[in-house]
């Protein structure tokens, strides 16, 4: 039975104060249900896009004949979009193949009742389309400029703070919560640091598992990430242009490298004190219901002397979502809370323009004016740490993830 800790407000509004706690059995059942829901979204992709294409075709055919005659390329472009969707579907099928066994410590078995398959929600389909765009950001040549602005400042700070001529970098532990498709964490591991990515979305986990463990040949695979964008195209062919991935061989990490991905909610998985030398967050802190929970956890899990490096905006993922707690703090407020926790802010840039899964040929483009900081947990707090706590082991792999219910830029 669920132990529901949600509160009802006097004004009738309703929000979850704490996460609902379920019995282990119920938790496992919900987990399976969620897993299959995301698999269904992957499988439904082609039908979903075909519906969009059919609608566009119907609209076009409803135009007066003399208008249609002036636009000889429209129907053939729709046919092309349809073919690109078929191709994307093949890649998505490959991604979910074997996903039944992708976690070391959990099996999802068979769907409870195959007749219960429901049409995936628009929300899940949007998440899937965003995941396809995430391949551009993380694993294509087209994403290089974006990675240079988002990931490089973080990587450069790690190298400055833990240079390989002063540290045995294989012993410097770096955690990347909200790792997405894993490129930032992978790059850090490539430099020899011990790096762990953490992610809770099945969309991301299936996809990162595919790239990291099952892709080898550089630029051997193709996706059409922009076919879902019907507005703001300068040329029809912009909509159907391909991207190739992976731009590097993900298997090319040095044999000695220590790289892992852990599935689950950052707040639930990471609770051991004084464990990490560095926590690197990129476009992550605004995924919190209450960002101070993230600040508190990062403070706790960093070793004394450890650093938190952050780059990102504050586009709060739960803002305006019904029944969800969301506290939308300004950077000023977060900063002041960080200082109260005891963080020393060593580097701070309040205006770092970046993009996120940008379509560089679109007539609508967003720029995030991000904050970047390096905040240190001072060594002084070592006094509270007991001897045997100093040799902490890494956090165990989480049971599994179950969070794809939030709005996010991904
Ligand atoms: C905006 S994306 C950024 C992904 C990646 N860091 C990047 O810069 O491309 C935020 C990511 O955090 C993940 N996420 C959100 N809340 C999380 C949580 N509590 N624990 C782990 N991952 C989470 C989301 O699934 C999503 O992949």
UniProtKB/TrEMBL annotation:
Stored SMART domains: N2227
Alphabetized Pfam families for the sequence: CARME
Entry similarity comment: Belongs to the carnosine N-methyltransferase family.
Protein name (database record): Carnosine N-methyltransferase
Region (Disordered): 387-410
Natural source organism: Sphaeramia orbicularis
E.C. numbers: 2.1.1.22
Gene Ontology MF term list: carnosine N-methyltransferase activity
């Amino acid at each position: 039975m669920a132990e529901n800790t949600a509160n009802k407000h006097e004004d009738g509004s309703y929000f979850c104060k704490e996460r609902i706690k379920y019995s282990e059995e119920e938790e496992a059942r919900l987990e399976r249900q969620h897993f299959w829901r995301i698999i269904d979204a992957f499988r439904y992709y082609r039908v979903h896009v075909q519906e969009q294409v059919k609608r566009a075709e119907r609209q076009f055919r409803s135009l007066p004949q003399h208008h249609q005659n002036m636009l000889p390329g429209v129907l053939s472009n729709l046919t092309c979009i349809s073919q690109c969707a078929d191709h994307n579907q093949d890649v998505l099928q490959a991604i979910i193949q074997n996903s039944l066994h992708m976690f070391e410590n959990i099996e999802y078995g068979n769907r409870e009742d195959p007749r219960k398959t429901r049409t995936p929600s628009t929300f899940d389909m949007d998440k899937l389309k965003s995941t396809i765009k995430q391949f551009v950001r993380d694993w294509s040549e087209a994403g290089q400029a974006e990675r240079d602005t988002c990931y490089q400042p973080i990587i450069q700070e790690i190298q400055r703070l833990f240079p390989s001529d002063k540290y045995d970098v294989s012993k410097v532990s770096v955690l990347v919560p909200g790792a997405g498709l894993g490129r930032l964490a992978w790059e850090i591991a490539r430099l020899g640091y011990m790096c762990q990515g953490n992610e809770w979305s099945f969309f991301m986990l299936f996809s990162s598992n595919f790239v990291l463990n099952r892709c080898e040949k550089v630029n051997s695979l193709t996706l059409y990430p922009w076919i879902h964008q019907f507005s703001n195209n300068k040329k029809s062919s912009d909509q159907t242009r391909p991207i190739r991935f992976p731009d590097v061989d993900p298997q090319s990490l040095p044999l000695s490298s220590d790289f892992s991905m852990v599935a689950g909610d950052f707040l639930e998985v990471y609770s051991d004190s004084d464990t990490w030398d560095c926590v690197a967050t990129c476009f992550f802190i605004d995924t919190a219901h209450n960002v101070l929970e993230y600040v508190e956890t990062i403070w706790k899990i960093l070793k004394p002397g450890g650093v938190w490096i952050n780059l990102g905006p504050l586009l709060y993922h739960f803002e305006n979502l019904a029944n969800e707690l969301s506290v939308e703090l300004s950077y000023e407020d977060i900063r002041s809370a960080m200082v109260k926790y005891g963080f020393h802010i060593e580097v701070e840039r309040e205006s770092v323009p970046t993009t996120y899964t940008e379509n560089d040929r679109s007539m609508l483009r967003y720029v995030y004016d991000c904050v970047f900081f390096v905040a240190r947990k001072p060594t002084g707090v070592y006094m509270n740490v007991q001897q045997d706590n100093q040799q902490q082991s890494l956090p165990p792999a989480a049971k599994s993830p179950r969070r794809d219910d939030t709005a996010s830029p991904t």
